[in-house]
Amino acid sequence: MTRYIYLLSTISLLSLLAPNTIAQEAPHANLSLPEGAIARIGNGRSTEMKYSPETDRLAVASSTGIWLYDTNTYQLINLMTDHKGTINSIDFSPDGNTLVSINVKGNMHLWDARTGHYKHRMADTISNKIIVFHPHGHTIGTAVHRLIMLWDVKDNRLRKRYELAKDDDNVFRIDSLVFSPTESIIAAGIHDGTIDLWDTFTGENIQTLDAHRNSVECMVFNRDGSLLITGGSDTTIRIWNMKTKGQITTLFGDMGSVKCLALSADGGLIAAGCHDGAIHLWETDTHKHWKKLGGDEKVIFDVAFIEDLRTVMSRSWDGSICTWNIFTGEKTRTVDIFHGKFSSFAVSPDGNTIATPSRNTGIFLWDATSGALLKKIHHPSIKSHEDIAFSPDGKTIALAEHTNNVHLLSTDTGELKQTFTEDKKPITAVAYSPDGNTIAVSSHDTTVSLWDTTTGQLKHTLKGHKAQVRRVAFSPDGNTIASGSDDRTVRLWDANTGLEKHVTKPHVDGVKDIAFSPDGKIIASAGNDPKFYQWDVDTGKQQYVFKGTRFDIICLAFSPDGKMLAVSSHAGEIEIRDAKSKKPLQTINAKNKVERLAFTSQGKSLISIDIDGVIYIWKIAVE
Q1: Which residues, including other chains, have CB under 8 Å from residue 569's CB and lie 6 or more apart?
Q2: CA distance 154 to 149
């Protein structure tokens, strides 16, 4: 019996007293908003999660900034947005007072880790993949490709620079980096499976360890620096004696590629987060496999022990953050503070609710005015959500999986009402008919399927496109269906017979978005060029082409009264124009590529989703 088994009776009793849910949503919707935004929904694509040394704060790096949380309440302390571009890596200083970050442009910044307030820019360098503090706090190490750089924290200067004596950046790039806590050694895990040990004072390459069969994904030293523990994409963990530089043992078993490692506070347990979605616990001394946590097909990218002797925290590829009881093996909570990246959104017919599907974590319903979370709907058999649509009465949500299923769920209860299965390639979009009796489903295989929502039967398959169909929409009267495809055309179909009515002239590039005017007479389209087009629905003839925007237009939407047309470009500039004269009425700087737009039913706000899966609610400043 190990020391952990002896602790079981005491600590497992304490675990029963722990809460298994977070009572309230972290109030982050209105922090550091871009100009003109009313609220933010979602945090964006997460890149790294780090706990402070005392585990009282949690920092999550993402495409929108760095989110700093109090782990006692899981309330947001601050959102740090002074960076330009996605944050690649972050780390806490050993005393927990400072947070360092580096973004895709190579800008290094220092932050007050207790308040989230900005300190200063430390340096500008190339885009580094990894940043770590030295255990003594005086040095910061960064790594990218074959290059390691050491920076002096006090003087904000580059102190040393090491380069791997290997030629191919793809094979020999650095995938992990860690300082020894006791010696002047920095270890670099290489993509070819080796580990380079460098002397941080002399710059000498001390030794190269022939470690894993391929990429060394993660590494951690124990507290006295006597052991180096490494994890690889070869699905093994290896433990090294740092005095002899020899391998002690290899840990292997029912594990996927090892993506992250952590040691318990006393060094007795190793936690390994794996590609198969499981966390494996190993005893450091006996090398025995102790327990497996989870395994729900979400890749674990970060793992950390909390200093309560019973809890492990993890971050998955979808941005979800979970806590686990190491004795019972149970997931004790999913911390609903980080909603990650959304794939799409839909606005309810009454304009009061925004629905967002999140991969593997369910459907979130949000207040369309404040951005507050109203409800979460989850069905355990539904995964990989791609698109979403409300029924005309708002009582049902159509949820399209990326694979080949469309599910109808009750908005109130989350009950699964109906499932349609497409015998073809992955689904791209879904739309409800105005009477709610038909679902249109577009896919990669160039077709659009029409399903009867009452009987569940396939009514028609619309064939004619030569490439994948990206968008599908019903006209307001329900008699016409429009589809936009990568074959550069918009096709108009008879919704009752499934017959093709018209094909538009080809766009310059594939059609990215389409929208009917509220009166149903016009279909507007965006084709990934600096123009947007308007077509007559009755004839299919080009009615208007607007030229002169600075960037390629990729999405558009009409206001409910038809008086405004919103268009957005690759550069993240949203223009609201007069639908008749095309005169610009308002310009919104979304600061990121916008992939979908929709007005609320009252026309007083505009909803957007950007390339990082963040949704913004914008105020319409047009009288």
Answers
A1: 530, 549, 550, 551, 552, 553, 554, 594
A2: 16
Q: Taking residues 122-143, report their average pLDDT.
A: 89
DSSP for 547-580 reads E--SS-EEEEEE-TTSSEEEEEETTSEEEEEETT
Q: In this structure, are residues 208 and 193 in contact, taking their beta carbons and an 8 Å threshold? A: no
Residues 45-54 have a mean pLDDT of 88
- Copy the structure tokens of residue 486: 């990568």
The closest of 357, 324, 323 to 341, measured between CA atoms, is 357
Q: How far does Cα 154 stand from its chain's mean position?
A: 34
What percentage of the chain has pLDDT greater than the value 90? 62
Which pLDDT belongs to residue 15?
37
Task: Report the alpha-carbon distance of residue 262 to residue 239 in Å, rounded.
Answer: 13
Give the least confident one: 20-34, 191-205, 446-460: 20-34
HSE-CB at 464 with a 13 A cutoff on CA atoms is: 21
Cβ neighbour number for residue 254 with a 10 Å cutoff = 12
Tokens of 390: 């409300």
Cβ–Cβ < 8 Å for 105, 127: yes
Q: What is the mean pLDDT of residues 375-381?
A: 78
Instruction: Report the chain's C-alpha Rg in angstroms.
Output: 27
| Residue type present at position 493 | W
Q: Please give the average per-residue pLDDT across 550-577, as a whole number.
A: 92
Using CA atoms, how far residue 181 sits from 17, 49, 238, 391, in Å, is 36, 21, 19, 59
Instruction: Quote the strand ranges of 52-105, DSSP E.
Output: 57-62, 66-70, 75-80, 87-92, 98-103
Structural contact between residues 102 and 126, judged by C-beta atoms closer than 8 angstroms: no
The tokens for 563 are: 């008086």
Model-level pTM? 0.86
pLDDT per residue as tens digits for the range 321-347: 888 999 999 998 877 676 778 889 999
> DSSP secondary-structure letter at 497?
T
Q: Which residues fall within 8 angstroms of residue 519, CB to CB, at 6 or more apart? A: 476, 562
Q: Burial code of 569-588, b = ≥16 C-beta within 10 A, e = fewer?
A: bbebbbbbbebeeeeebbeb
Residue 82, CB half-sphere, CA atoms under 13 Å: how many? 17
Which conformational region is residue 558 in: left (phi greater than 0), alpha (psi within -120 to 50 degrees), or beta?
A: beta
